[in-house]
Structures are given as structure tokens and as C-alpha cells.
Amino acid sequence: FPLAGNVFATVARFKGRVLVSVRRFYQPHAEQEDVWKGGRQGLTLTPDQWLALHRNMGNVSSALLSCAFATIPDYGPPFTPHRIDLGNLRYATVEVFRGEAVVALREFYKPRPDADPDRILPGKKGINLACEHWAALESQADNIEAVLQAVIDKKPLDVV
Predict the structure, then answer these.
(1) Exposed e or buried b per residue across 58-88, where buried means at least 16 C-beta atoms within 10 angstroms of its C-beta
(2) Which of 43, 52, 83, 139 is 20 to 30 A from 89 via CA?
(3) 39 with 78: CB under 8 angstroms?
(4) The model's pTM
């Protein structure tokens, strides 16, 4: 599912597990325009994590709109990041990044076992989705859901 530019959402089975991935892709050879490979920027979600994201898309979109207004100079108070738990230390966070409103799909980690149990830090795995990427993901969510269910049920995709 193309989202915008080189960002895609995919549904696949990997090592017997069904996964939804939101990832930046690249073309390893310019002369082969139809060959794309997954890059490092992205996050892979289990079906339960995808369902948590899908259920909360309205909340994320509302927060993204508020965040976009907060990027306008002298508009109002600064925006406080809005975080939605997807499970297993993965979050969808609406925040301002380099002056733009983004939805960050990111994996977090706990720094040390003896540290504050509520303290978590962002890890390397993840992707920042600009407003147009998020809008495309939201518009494709029902299609992604249908393909996800078909892959889980091992149905042919032409039935979907």
C-alpha cells in the first residue's frame, strides 16, 4: 500500500507470523524502477498492535491537527506530545519534529532494570510519518485490515 513517496505499508507472513509493516523503501538500482527494498526506517507491528493503531486513528488524527496548529508561530501554547500505547513498548506519538507535526511510530526501551520503572526512552526502530503519510495510512486502513484478515485466514487475496 503506497502512502506517499517512498513510504509503504505492507502485510506479510514472516517466519510463520503475520505482520504489518510501515516502512521507507529504496530502489537499489535506478534502472530497475519496479524493484523496491525495505529500508531501516520503519516499524513492524503484530496484528494486535495494528488493531490498537487502527482503533485509535481518530484520536491520532485529532492530536495531529492540534499539533499542526501548534507549529504556526505565535499561535498558542506549545504542543504536548500525545502518546498511544500499541503494546510491547511500541507507541504512536504525535509530536513536533524539526518544526513539523508528525506521527512517530516507534519502539521504546527501558534504560536499566534498576532505574525508574515508568521511564522509557525512544529506540532506533521506528518511522516519522508526515501529515500526508498519516492521511494516506488512515485512508488505506480498512484495505490493510482486509488484507491482514485474509492473510491470517490464509484466504486468496482476490477474494478480499
Answers:
(1) eebbebbeebbebeeeeeeeebeebbbebee
(2) 139
(3) no
(4) 0.85
